[in-house]
Design a protein that fits this description.
Shape: globular
Strand content: 15-25%
Number of strands: 22
Number of helices: 14
CATH class of the largest domain: Alpha Beta
Helix content: 40-55%
Bound molecules: NADPH dihydro-nicotinamide-adenine-dinucleotide phosphate, 2-oxoglutaric acid
Strand order of the largest sheet: 14-15-16-13-12-18-19
Length: 475
């Protein structure tokens, strides 16, 4: 059993064994981990509390250099990390490599941000008084992260947390411990003082809950159900929280769209990375004039997608992460069929050379926005088409959802593009681009049930990871 929890600079084990298998090949047992329990959580927070004050007082350059070393460690190990991620998480190697590179760029970006700690000097309404606005670290930040982007998502929390002087206790999803340990090894090798950064491999309901009970702030990415529960627990403790949750992201395709481009964008946004993206285009909202040609063009492209073992060179769509997601996706396919959605393509589990969690990318047409398949997050390679009469109806349908993460429009009309950008109820909008796939230096997040709390990423991250102090000084 591997001893892979990082506490106070030491690698330690845990009592309960967790066996991880390759979702592309269930006969491939990757490793067995010793899961952390409440004792390890307490030890991690004790270590972080001891180490954080000095880290919070470290020079900006010291912190920047640590971030730079983390970035270098990620770039230097990119191929090894991509292989681990592909084997454990079912991502194709190019997708895995893309994610690893993104994490490296995020760490490098925050090496710069560490040097640009913002502050402000204001005049006072009183004579001979100066006012300074400065920022302090929040303290010990608990990071709870999911399995679908197990490198980039943690890094867009770890990097700003460290850059702005916080201690970190990170609880990744227990579905992807191997890649989490590999990232933690790189952080630990960066000359970061022992105890500032800690990793706990453990289950959400016990270790995650214990992290929430001990942290000064929580940054979470995952489902809206879990996010809601965590936000309530944080409110009870009066600690700040930042929640990135689900999506039911609309891609609107208008009559004047470039058909080939729109179909490419839809297939990319809906099915790549098995649709396991909070930004996935799960609702394709298409106006009458282009509808039939669009559905045909998408179905042709989807039928040609190569589903297979994530480590095989020509695979475009890998397996879904585990048995729970596999069954959940199949369950939603049954629900859609039961709602009389028309199966345009896919709709079944696939048996390939190796036994894994393979699903045929699935497109339903003739759906309505009231159907469950269009209201609940599936989080798999399943998308729907909703036919609408015109742009106005398309926008209304796009906004008729409890979520508001990402929203796209395919059109050649500047008028509609600008109107959509201004009026769609989403945190991120895309014009003639997939709803998924974002830059690493810009704010990431949504509205409604998709996000809660300050934005992540880019220079906006400083809002969550620092607290403001206003100082009055008699001159
Ligand atoms: N929008 C997004 O980015 C994501 C959305 N999802 C959605 O969530 C569904 C379920 O996936 P799942 O992995 O279970 O997502 P969860 O939201 O349950 O898990 C996300 C993270 O929260 C942890 N966690 C779970 N329960 C608790 C808790 N009570 N207290 C503290 N931490 C907790 C998990 O730990 P652990 O995994 O170890 O239990 C994981 O680290 C998917 O089908 C999908 O719809 C999932 C992942 C990302
Ligand atoms: O679309 C992206 O690039 C990011 C998606 C994401 O962060 C997520 O699915 O959790």
């Amino acid at each position: 059993m591997l001893e892979k929890n990082l506490i106070g600079g030491n690698w330690v084990g845990g009592a309960q064994a967790l066996e991880i298998r390759n979702p592309s090949d269930l006969s491939d047992v990757i490793a067995t981990y010793g899961l952390a329990g409440k004792g390890e959580v307490e030890a991690a927070f004790a270590a972080a509390r001891k180490a954080q004050p000095a880290w919070g007082r470290a020079t900006l350059e010291q912190r920047s250099l640590v971030l730079e070393a983390i970035a270098r460690g990620i770039f230097d190990n990119k191929d090894r990390l991509a292989q681990i991620l592909a084997r454990e998480g079912g991502k194709t190697v190019p997708d895995a490599l893309g994610e690893v590179m993104r994490a490296g760029h995020i760490a490098r970006f925050f090496a710069g941000e560490a040097l640009r700690m913002p502050g402000e000097k204001l005049g006072s309404v009183r004579p001979n008084v100066d006012v300074e606005i400065t920022r302090d670290p929040v303290g010990i930040v608990g990071l709870i992260t999911p399995w679908n982007f197990p490198v980039a998502t943690p890094m867009w929390k770890i990097a700003p947390a460290l850059a702005f002087g916080n201690g970190v206790v990170w609880k990744p999803s227990e579905k992807t411990p191997g890649i989490s340990v590999a990232i933690a090894e790189i952080v630990a090798a960066s000359s970061i003082p022992a105890g500032v950064f800690n990793l706990l491999i453990g289950a959400g309901p016990d270790v995650g809950a214990a992290v929430i009970a001990n942290a000064d702030a929580i940054s979470f990415t995952g489902s809206s159900t879990t996010g809601r529960r965590i936000a309530v627990a944080c409110a009870e403790r009066l600690i700040r929280c930042q929640m990135e949750m689900g999506g039911k992201n609309p891609l609107v395709v208008l009559d004047d769209a470039d058909l080939e481009l729109a179909a490419d964008i839809a297939v990319n946004g809906a099915f790549f990375q098995q649709g396991q993206r909070c930004t996935a285009s799960s609702r394709l909202i298409v106006t009458n004039g282009i509808h039939d040609a669009f559905v045909k063009a998408c179905a042709e492209r989807i039928a040609k997608l190569r589903v297979g073992h994530a480590l095989k060179a020509d695979t475009q769509i890998g397996p879904v992460i585990d048995d729970t997601q596999f069954r959940k996706n199949l369950g939603y396919i049954d629900i859609a069929k039961g709602e009389n959605a028309r199966l345009a393509t896919g709709g079944e589990a696939l048996e390939l050379e190796t036994k894994g969690y393979y699903l045929a990318p699935t497109l339903f047409a003739d759906t309505t926005n009231a159907m469950r398949i269009n209201r609940e997050e599936v989080f798999g390679p399943v998308a729907t088409v909703i036919r609408v009469a015109d742009y106005e109806e398309a926008l209304a349908v796009a906004n008729d959802t409890e979520y508001g993460l990402s929203a796209g429009v395919c059109t050649t009309s500047m008028k509609h593009a600008r109107h959509f950008q201004r009026n769609v109820e989403a945190g991120m909008t895309m014009l003639n681009l997939p709803t998924a796939g974002v830059d690493y230096h810009t704010p990431f997040g949504g509205r409604k049930a998709s996000s809660y709390g300050p934005r992540e990423q880019g220079r906006y991250a400083v809002e969550f990871y620092t607290q403001i102090k206003t100082s009055y000084l008699l001159a």
